[in-house]
Protein 1
Amino acid sequence: MSNVTYISGKEPHSREHRLIFRNIDRKGYDPGLKCYLKDGGYEQLKKAVTMEPKAITDEVKAAGLRGRGGAGFPTGLKWTFIPPTNTKPVYLICNADESEPGTFKDRYIMHQDPHQLLEGMAIACYAVGAKLAYIYVREEFPHAARILEEAIAEAKKAGFLGKGICGSTFDLELYVHRGAGAYICGEETGLIESLEGKRPYPRIKPPFFPAVLGLYMSPTIVNNVESLCHVKHILAMGGAEYAKLGTPNNTGTRILCVSGDVQKPGYFEVQVGKVTLGEVIQDFCGGLKPGRKLQAVIPGGSSAKVLRADERFKLKRGDEMVEIGLEDIPMDFDSLAACGSMAGSGGVIIIDDSRKISWVLNNINSFYAHESCGQCTPCREGSLWMKKISDRIVAGKASPDDVATLESVANNIEGKTICAFGEACSWPTQSFIRKFRAELVADTREELAGVPVNHETTLAAANLKN
Ligand SMILES: Cc1cc2nc3c(=O)[nH]c(=O)nc-3n(C[C@H](O)[C@H](O)[C@H](O)COP(=O)(O)O)c2cc1C
Ligand code: SF4
């Protein structure tokens, strides 16, 4: 990174490790092909087309890359799920829907370094045998869609896309598809339905795992923008070398998007697991706002379970179990899962003590109620009920029993729906109630009117209803 200079005021933090964001905010850098080629652009694609496709997948597997779209699924392993006996066309879709609240990384790649994504996609297509690929860009990113379309035209003219790529026999057509303006279009099977021109109703898995039955019922690899960008760097470094970045099982770098109550919110590319949540808040983001105390953190996009500032967590370190506080949690997939939440899409939302918890939960519930696709009853009805109940709590019109009802509604969504939106909308409610029950009950009308509430009874009521 030493030969790279950045726009004044936008320099990366000294502890960042920039691979994917190397060219973001770089002085004099533009999204054109000329600029990309000056710095080794498309060299990895030239190398890739001389390799056996399987050798590329093996490098990605050796790198240990896990998907950056939300679930953290191993990318190389996903690629091997295409049935070996398949005779249908194989497709690759780049998921550029970036719809999880708190997440704002993919848009910078598309705006400022589109050829990095195209090169990653072309290498991935070569590895999985796809001759047709799409970038599904959310409707709210028209600027990104235009930049990508220009980049595709440039790459095609220069022989990096189209027929006989880089003098090989590899052909690839790549199209931008503009999204339908809904959160559920980011869920891979909803996305596929939308791409097919239909309403984005997610498909049930099994049998509709995209790698087997995806776009037009053909094998389809769906990967996030950031995941696909990593492919180029893995090829450049070699899988084993890439795997030395980060921590075991949580390799490489990832972009954290930090928003909420910190002095300097923003994006930071770090080695996975090499920084703690406390370092992110204090060191990268300049700490909390003056006079404020940390109340909670949602570490992986709005659907991740909330963590309370004063919680204690048990983590395995070597052979030992250690107890740690919130600020000591390493920012990686496994540690955040062990602490009861998830790394998700990398959207870290910081909540200080100026926020009313009922307001935060209501804000999240309003989003999910608006975004349920309506296909299955527990999610369609439940997400709206959760919003209505949290509306009442915020307005001081709820009864303490409503908190118990709210919890029971969430418990009746989780695990009972076609797609993981069911979990995405119920986890915030479940975790906020589990960790902030007293704060929520304190906002109900009896408490506000000074009527003493028996918290034991409301807890028992919740358990009965579940
Ligand atoms: C409700 C819902 C919304 C999602 N939204 C996105 C999104 O906006 N972008 C994304 O990359 N993945 C999103 N995902 C995850 C995708 O379904 C899919 O797992 C991902 O694109 C796979 O890419 P990866 O393996 O590279 O992470 C969403 C999942 C769910 C359940
Ligand atoms: S869980 Fe919700 S978003 Fe997913 S299919 Fe069912 S209704 Fe639609």
Protein 2
Amino acid sequence: MGSVGFPLKSLACILIVVILEGFCDSHNETWCYDKPSCGPQTWGSLGFCNGRKQSPINIDTKDAVPWAGLGPIRFTNYEDRKLVKQLKNKGYQAEVVLHSGATISSAGLRATYYLQHFHFHWGTEDSDGSEHTINGQRYSMELHLVHTKNNMSVEEALKDPEGVAVLALFMKKSRKYAQVNPWNTLANLFKKIPEKGDTWDLNGEFSVGGLLSTADVSHYYCYKGSLTTPNCEEVVTWIIFPDPIEVSEQVIKIFSNSLYFTTVKEGRRMRNNFRPLQPLKGRKVYYYKENISVISCLLHCFY
Ligand SMILES: [Zn+2]
């Protein structure tokens, strides 16, 4: 009996593995950007995507509440080229994975937040694809620098209501920056990871600070929201710099033409990977602008 039972058990195990693998395959396509069957309109049933603090949002600047107490964002180690680790095509976005070490802090953040990775959202060569909008204006692309509280793993941070802080910067086309700069270097490297699962090891080719060298980080909007991809966990403090970084047209072209959601053969170009705007549902958006007051000048200018 034992000798008969064992193969039956093995067969059952094989069947379970096959069923689970099938589930995992379809699970990968339970959400996407480019098909009606799994596009953003269908995400409501996934995770927290139907919650009350979802992202992205439109920022109506006249409704933003000025709050000096947020303070300026202090950056550490953003210039360190050794921190860039690997490029990864995740099948829905292009990500730059980092070694731990770069941080942000501010009076408005209750911990130090460590930069873990950054990624992008875009439209097509000719249409805009930022996730957030400012007074209804959408930009070509949006950069998300994802930080976790006190260097938690991303998995841990997703369980903490204050686990994640994302810096968002808009990118727009400009003729001024057609020469080689860190953006051109990064975009050209993305050509090496066209398919889902592709990776490329980095070796100090650029620094995050170099990419942000022309960004104006002296003023920003801040609100509580979610990840913009399933499971849309509502754990994100969003810090959004309204002034766009200017990059060459070539950079936008490379993103929208060189990357694919799956395989080059299947031909689904990674484009329009941005989530539609979500309702504010009573949340407040705060605004901070650096402003040297007379009192702080008295304290710092004469001593
Ligand atoms: Zn993002």
